[in-house]
Amino acid sequence: MTNYLMHRLLLIIITLIGVSVLVCSLTRLMPGDFVDVMLGTQKGMLTDHQIQSLRSAYGLDKPWPVQYWEWVKSILRGSLGYSLRTGKSVLQEIGGRLQVTLELTVMSMFLGVTSGILLGTLSAIRRDRPSDFILRIVGLIGLSIPRFWLGLLIILALTTYVHWLPPMGTVIPFFRNPAGNLAQFIFPALTLSLGLTASLMRITRSAMLEVLHHDFVLTASSKGLSNRVVWLKHCLRNALIPVITLIGMQFGYLLGGAVVIECVFSLRGVGRSLINAISHRDYVLVQGIVLTIALTFAFVNLIIDVLYSVIDPRIRYT
Question: pTM of the prediction?
Protein backbone atom coordinates (compact mmCIF):
# COMPACT_ATOMS: atom_id res chain seq x y z
CA MET A 1 0.00 0.00 0.00
CA THR A 2 2.85 2.40 0.81
CA ASN A 3 4.46 1.91 -2.60
CA TYR A 4 1.10 2.42 -4.27
CA LEU A 5 0.46 5.65 -2.37
CA MET A 6 3.92 6.99 -3.24
CA HIS A 7 3.32 6.14 -6.89
CA ARG A 8 -0.04 7.90 -6.84
CA LEU A 9 1.41 10.98 -5.14
CA LEU A 10 4.08 11.16 -7.84
CA LEU A 11 1.38 10.96 -10.51
CA ILE A 12 -0.54 13.74 -8.75
CA ILE A 13 2.53 15.97 -8.85
CA ILE A 14 3.02 15.28 -12.56
CA THR A 15 -0.67 15.97 -13.20
CA LEU A 16 -0.51 19.28 -11.33
CA ILE A 17 2.54 20.32 -13.35
CA GLY A 18 0.66 19.58 -16.57
CA VAL A 19 -2.43 21.45 -15.35
CA SER A 20 -0.35 24.47 -14.34
CA VAL A 21 1.43 24.65 -17.73
CA LEU A 22 -1.87 24.24 -19.59
CA VAL A 23 -3.81 26.88 -17.63
CA CYS A 24 -0.90 29.34 -17.76
CA SER A 25 -0.65 29.04 -21.54
CA LEU A 26 -4.41 29.16 -22.13
CA THR A 27 -4.93 32.28 -20.03
CA ARG A 28 -2.34 34.12 -22.15
CA LEU A 29 -4.30 33.23 -25.30
CA MET A 30 -7.30 35.28 -24.14
CA PRO A 31 -7.62 38.64 -25.95
CA GLY A 32 -6.31 41.58 -23.92
CA ASP A 33 -4.62 41.47 -20.55
CA PHE A 34 -5.12 42.88 -17.07
CA VAL A 35 -3.95 46.37 -18.08
CA ASP A 36 -6.40 46.49 -21.01
CA VAL A 37 -9.30 45.50 -18.77
CA MET A 38 -8.24 47.86 -15.98
CA LEU A 39 -7.97 50.90 -18.26
CA GLY A 40 -11.05 50.14 -20.33
CA THR A 41 -12.17 53.13 -22.36
CA GLN A 42 -9.50 55.28 -20.71
CA LYS A 43 -6.76 53.41 -22.52
CA GLY A 44 -6.76 55.96 -25.34
CA MET A 45 -5.87 58.71 -22.86
CA LEU A 46 -2.47 57.14 -22.13
CA THR A 47 0.57 57.01 -24.35
CA ASP A 48 2.08 53.72 -25.49
CA HIS A 49 5.02 54.30 -23.16
CA GLN A 50 2.71 54.74 -20.15
CA ILE A 51 0.76 51.57 -21.05
CA GLN A 52 4.00 49.63 -21.43
CA SER A 53 5.17 50.94 -18.06
CA LEU A 54 1.99 49.63 -16.46
CA ARG A 55 2.51 46.22 -18.04
CA SER A 56 6.09 46.22 -16.79
CA ALA A 57 4.94 47.11 -13.27
CA TYR A 58 2.63 44.07 -13.23
CA GLY A 59 5.20 41.83 -14.92
CA LEU A 60 3.04 41.39 -18.01
CA ASP A 61 5.77 42.49 -20.41
CA LYS A 62 7.71 39.26 -19.89
CA PRO A 63 7.17 36.14 -22.04
CA TRP A 64 4.64 33.74 -20.53
CA PRO A 65 7.25 31.01 -19.82
CA VAL A 66 9.14 33.53 -17.69
CA GLN A 67 5.90 34.50 -15.90
CA TYR A 68 5.14 30.82 -15.37
CA TRP A 69 8.56 30.15 -13.86
CA GLU A 70 8.22 33.07 -11.48
CA TRP A 71 4.84 31.72 -10.41
CA VAL A 72 6.36 28.24 -9.87
CA LYS A 73 9.09 29.78 -7.70
CA SER A 74 6.42 31.46 -5.57
CA ILE A 75 4.71 28.06 -5.16
CA LEU A 76 7.99 26.52 -4.01
CA ARG A 77 8.19 29.29 -1.42
CA GLY A 78 4.75 28.30 -0.11
CA SER A 79 2.68 30.92 -1.93
CA LEU A 80 0.46 30.98 -5.02
CA GLY A 81 1.40 34.55 -5.84
CA TYR A 82 -0.62 37.74 -5.51
CA SER A 83 -3.77 38.82 -7.27
CA LEU A 84 -3.20 41.46 -9.93
CA ARG A 85 -6.54 43.13 -9.20
CA THR A 86 -6.61 43.23 -5.39
CA GLY A 87 -2.93 42.80 -4.52
CA LYS A 88 -3.88 40.21 -1.89
CA SER A 89 -2.29 36.80 -1.59
CA VAL A 90 -3.97 34.19 -3.79
CA LEU A 91 -4.06 31.83 -0.80
CA GLN A 92 -5.96 34.50 1.14
CA GLU A 93 -8.35 35.04 -1.76
CA ILE A 94 -9.02 31.32 -2.11
CA GLY A 95 -9.14 30.59 1.61
CA GLY A 96 -11.98 33.03 2.18
CA ARG A 97 -14.12 31.45 -0.53
CA LEU A 98 -13.08 27.80 -0.66
CA GLN A 99 -15.23 26.87 2.34
CA VAL A 100 -18.32 28.07 0.46
CA THR A 101 -17.54 25.93 -2.59
CA LEU A 102 -16.62 22.91 -0.48
CA GLU A 103 -19.81 23.20 1.58
CA LEU A 104 -21.89 23.42 -1.59
CA THR A 105 -20.04 20.49 -3.17
CA VAL A 106 -20.14 18.27 -0.06
CA MET A 107 -23.84 18.97 0.50
CA SER A 108 -24.57 18.22 -3.16
CA MET A 109 -22.50 15.06 -2.93
CA PHE A 110 -24.38 13.91 0.17
CA LEU A 111 -27.79 14.54 -1.40
CA GLY A 112 -26.79 12.97 -4.72
CA VAL A 113 -25.13 9.88 -3.25
CA THR A 114 -27.86 9.04 -0.73
CA SER A 115 -30.78 9.60 -3.11
CA GLY A 116 -29.03 8.07 -6.13
CA ILE A 117 -28.04 4.82 -4.39
CA LEU A 118 -31.42 4.53 -2.66
CA LEU A 119 -33.45 5.09 -5.83
CA GLY A 120 -31.14 2.88 -7.91
CA THR A 121 -31.47 0.03 -5.43
CA LEU A 122 -35.24 0.44 -5.33
CA SER A 123 -35.40 0.47 -9.13
CA ALA A 124 -33.37 -2.76 -9.36
CA ILE A 125 -35.43 -4.54 -6.71
CA ARG A 126 -38.68 -3.57 -8.44
CA ARG A 127 -37.43 -4.31 -11.94
CA ASP A 128 -39.96 -3.91 -14.79
CA ARG A 129 -42.66 -2.66 -12.42
CA PRO A 130 -44.35 0.74 -12.86
CA SER A 131 -42.15 2.31 -10.17
CA ASP A 132 -39.06 1.11 -12.05
CA PHE A 133 -40.19 2.74 -15.30
CA ILE A 134 -41.03 5.98 -13.47
CA LEU A 135 -37.61 6.10 -11.80
CA ARG A 136 -35.83 5.41 -15.10
CA ILE A 137 -37.74 8.24 -16.79
CA VAL A 138 -36.92 10.57 -13.89
CA GLY A 139 -33.26 9.60 -14.26
CA LEU A 140 -33.24 10.48 -17.96
CA ILE A 141 -34.88 13.83 -17.20
CA GLY A 142 -32.33 14.51 -14.46
CA LEU A 143 -29.46 13.90 -16.88
CA SER A 144 -31.01 16.14 -19.53
CA ILE A 145 -31.92 19.28 -17.55
CA PRO A 146 -29.24 22.02 -17.62
CA ARG A 147 -28.25 22.96 -14.07
CA PHE A 148 -28.29 26.73 -14.59
CA TRP A 149 -31.78 26.55 -16.12
CA LEU A 150 -33.07 24.48 -13.21
CA GLY A 151 -31.55 26.94 -10.76
CA LEU A 152 -33.29 29.85 -12.46
CA LEU A 153 -36.59 27.95 -12.41
CA ILE A 154 -36.22 27.28 -8.68
CA ILE A 155 -35.56 30.97 -7.98
CA LEU A 156 -38.53 31.96 -10.16
CA ALA A 157 -40.84 29.46 -8.45
CA LEU A 158 -39.76 30.53 -4.96
CA THR A 159 -40.24 34.22 -5.68
CA THR A 160 -43.52 33.79 -7.61
CA TYR A 161 -45.42 31.18 -5.60
CA VAL A 162 -43.76 31.13 -2.19
CA HIS A 163 -42.79 34.83 -2.16
CA TRP A 164 -39.42 33.93 -0.66
CA LEU A 165 -35.92 34.21 -2.03
CA PRO A 166 -32.96 32.27 -0.60
CA PRO A 167 -30.39 34.52 1.06
CA MET A 168 -27.88 35.68 -1.55
CA GLY A 169 -24.66 37.65 -1.58
CA THR A 170 -23.26 37.46 1.95
CA VAL A 171 -22.69 33.88 3.10
CA ILE A 172 -24.26 32.91 6.42
CA PRO A 173 -21.74 30.89 8.51
CA PHE A 174 -23.07 27.48 9.56
CA PHE A 175 -21.93 27.62 13.19
CA ARG A 176 -23.36 31.11 13.64
CA ASN A 177 -26.77 30.39 12.11
CA PRO A 178 -27.29 26.74 11.04
CA ALA A 179 -30.88 27.30 9.88
CA GLY A 180 -29.95 30.34 7.81
CA ASN A 181 -26.96 28.54 6.31
CA LEU A 182 -29.14 25.56 5.37
CA ALA A 183 -31.76 27.85 3.80
CA GLN A 184 -29.03 29.49 1.74
CA PHE A 185 -27.37 26.29 0.50
CA ILE A 186 -30.17 23.72 0.22
CA PHE A 187 -31.58 24.86 -3.14
CA PRO A 188 -28.17 25.37 -4.82
CA ALA A 189 -27.17 21.93 -3.51
CA LEU A 190 -30.36 20.33 -4.82
CA THR A 191 -29.78 21.95 -8.21
CA LEU A 192 -26.18 20.80 -8.38
CA SER A 193 -26.92 17.26 -7.13
CA LEU A 194 -29.61 16.43 -9.70
CA GLY A 195 -27.20 15.13 -12.32
CA LEU A 196 -25.27 13.09 -9.74
CA THR A 197 -28.51 11.57 -8.44
CA ALA A 198 -29.57 10.52 -11.93
CA SER A 199 -26.16 9.08 -12.83
CA LEU A 200 -25.80 7.14 -9.58
CA MET A 201 -29.34 5.84 -9.83
CA ARG A 202 -28.68 4.37 -13.28
CA ILE A 203 -25.29 2.85 -12.43
CA THR A 204 -26.57 1.46 -9.10
CA ARG A 205 -29.53 -0.14 -10.85
CA SER A 206 -27.28 -1.80 -13.44
CA ALA A 207 -24.78 -3.02 -10.82
CA MET A 208 -27.52 -4.36 -8.54
CA LEU A 209 -29.23 -6.24 -11.39
CA GLU A 210 -25.93 -7.92 -12.21
CA VAL A 211 -25.22 -8.90 -8.60
CA LEU A 212 -28.76 -10.16 -7.92
CA HIS A 213 -28.18 -13.12 -10.27
CA HIS A 214 -24.97 -14.32 -8.61
CA ASP A 215 -24.87 -17.63 -6.77
CA PHE A 216 -23.93 -16.13 -3.39
CA VAL A 217 -27.19 -14.16 -3.40
CA LEU A 218 -29.21 -17.34 -3.91
CA THR A 219 -27.16 -19.00 -1.16
CA ALA A 220 -27.84 -16.14 1.25
CA SER A 221 -31.57 -16.31 0.48
CA SER A 222 -31.66 -20.07 0.92
CA LYS A 223 -30.19 -19.68 4.41
CA GLY A 224 -33.35 -17.85 5.43
CA LEU A 225 -31.94 -14.33 5.53
CA SER A 226 -34.48 -11.57 5.06
CA ASN A 227 -34.64 -9.74 1.75
CA ARG A 228 -33.45 -6.53 3.41
CA VAL A 229 -30.29 -8.22 4.71
CA VAL A 230 -29.62 -9.87 1.35
CA TRP A 231 -30.13 -6.64 -0.60
CA LEU A 232 -28.18 -4.32 1.69
CA LYS A 233 -25.42 -6.53 3.13
CA HIS A 234 -24.70 -8.88 0.23
CA CYS A 235 -25.96 -7.26 -2.97
CA LEU A 236 -25.39 -3.56 -2.42
CA ARG A 237 -21.89 -3.92 -1.00
CA ASN A 238 -20.75 -5.98 -3.98
CA ALA A 239 -22.36 -3.51 -6.36
CA LEU A 240 -20.61 -0.47 -4.86
CA ILE A 241 -17.33 -0.69 -6.81
CA PRO A 242 -18.65 0.95 -10.03
CA VAL A 243 -20.75 3.30 -7.90
CA ILE A 244 -17.70 4.49 -5.94
CA THR A 245 -15.81 4.98 -9.20
CA LEU A 246 -18.59 7.20 -10.55
CA ILE A 247 -18.69 9.18 -7.28
CA GLY A 248 -15.00 9.99 -7.63
CA MET A 249 -15.46 11.13 -11.22
CA GLN A 250 -18.58 13.14 -10.44
CA PHE A 251 -16.86 15.04 -7.62
CA GLY A 252 -14.81 16.88 -10.23
CA TYR A 253 -17.94 17.67 -12.22
CA LEU A 254 -19.58 19.02 -9.07
CA LEU A 255 -16.63 21.35 -8.50
CA GLY A 256 -16.93 22.54 -12.09
CA GLY A 257 -20.72 22.86 -11.84
CA ALA A 258 -20.33 24.91 -8.67
CA VAL A 259 -18.83 27.66 -10.82
CA VAL A 260 -22.17 28.13 -12.61
CA ILE A 261 -24.44 27.49 -9.62
CA GLU A 262 -22.57 30.01 -7.46
CA CYS A 263 -23.20 32.66 -10.10
CA VAL A 264 -26.90 31.74 -10.40
CA PHE A 265 -27.50 31.86 -6.63
CA SER A 266 -24.98 34.69 -5.96
CA LEU A 267 -22.79 32.66 -3.62
CA ARG A 268 -19.35 34.13 -2.96
CA GLY A 269 -17.38 30.95 -3.56
CA VAL A 270 -14.31 29.96 -5.51
CA GLY A 271 -16.35 29.42 -8.67
CA ARG A 272 -17.68 32.96 -8.72
CA SER A 273 -14.20 34.26 -7.91
CA LEU A 274 -12.84 32.29 -10.89
CA ILE A 275 -15.36 33.90 -13.24
CA ASN A 276 -14.44 37.37 -11.98
CA ALA A 277 -10.72 36.59 -12.28
CA ILE A 278 -11.15 35.46 -15.89
CA SER A 279 -13.17 38.54 -16.83
CA HIS A 280 -10.50 40.80 -15.27
CA ARG A 281 -7.62 38.78 -16.81
CA ASP A 282 -6.23 38.19 -13.32
CA TYR A 283 -3.89 35.47 -14.50
CA VAL A 284 -2.30 34.62 -11.16
CA LEU A 285 -5.64 34.19 -9.39
CA VAL A 286 -7.03 32.05 -12.24
CA GLN A 287 -3.97 29.80 -12.10
CA GLY A 288 -4.18 29.48 -8.31
CA ILE A 289 -7.89 28.58 -8.32
CA VAL A 290 -7.58 26.03 -11.12
CA LEU A 291 -4.57 24.43 -9.44
CA THR A 292 -6.46 24.23 -6.12
CA ILE A 293 -9.47 22.58 -7.80
CA ALA A 294 -7.20 20.11 -9.61
CA LEU A 295 -5.40 19.26 -6.37
CA THR A 296 -8.69 18.68 -4.55
CA PHE A 297 -9.99 16.48 -7.37
CA ALA A 298 -6.76 14.44 -7.44
CA PHE A 299 -6.82 13.74 -3.71
CA VAL A 300 -10.51 12.81 -3.77
CA ASN A 301 -9.77 10.23 -6.47
CA LEU A 302 -6.90 8.90 -4.36
CA ILE A 303 -9.25 8.47 -1.41
CA ILE A 304 -11.76 6.70 -3.68
CA ASP A 305 -9.08 4.25 -4.83
CA VAL A 306 -8.17 3.47 -1.22
CA LEU A 307 -11.84 2.86 -0.42
CA TYR A 308 -11.90 0.05 -2.98
CA SER A 309 -9.86 -2.18 -0.66
CA VAL A 310 -12.15 -1.29 2.26
CA ILE A 311 -15.33 -2.22 0.37
CA ASP A 312 -13.90 -5.30 -1.34
CA PRO A 313 -11.18 -7.11 0.70
CA ARG A 314 -10.14 -9.01 -2.43
CA ILE A 315 -8.59 -5.81 -3.82
CA ARG A 316 -5.02 -5.31 -2.67
CA TYR A 317 -2.47 -2.67 -3.68
CA THR A 318 1.22 -3.43 -3.90
Answer: 0.79
